[in-house]
Design a protein that fits this description.
It comes from Pseudobacter ginsenosidimutans. By secondary structure, the chain is mostly helical. Helices cover 58% and strands 3% of the residues.
Length: 116
């Protein structure tokens, strides 16, 4: 899939899929929100605003208050790529988000997901 197409995907369309994924594995929407807010610097209100405005992923990350300074601690494979080696910075942020959601769905402790 070409990056431009991914960047234009609506966060509002992806978010319910994330919720479904984590809930299937016994996790909660509030845990998902905590992880997403940790990554992006959004709070619950601004996260909901991004959903309501149907922003695309590029805008979602551009308007993120502040990417967490510990994102460099997110490592490993996602979709066959090492997240720490992805050169396109926007794609790397998107893959960080995917990686954190996967870790949540796999039952990892919140403290470990948030790199504390």
């Amino acid at each position: 899939m070409d990056n431009a197409r991914v960047f234009k995907m609506k966060f509002a369309n992806i978010y319910p899929l994330y919720i479904e994924k984590v809930e299937r594995k016994g996790r909660t929407k509030s845990e998902l929100d905590e992880v997403l807010c940790w990554l992006t610097g959004h709070n619950a209100k601004s996260l909901q605003q991004q959903i309501d405005m149907k922003t695309d992923l590029e805008t979602f990350f551009t308007q993120a208050p502040q990417l967490n300074p510990n994102v460099s601690k997110i490592t490993g494979l996602i979709c066959g790529y090492r997240v720490e080696e992805i050169e396109d910075k926007l794609m790397q942020k998107i893959r960080y988000m995917d990686k954190l959601v996967d870790e949540l769905a796999k039952g990892k402790k919140i403290e470990k997901i948030l790199r504390q």
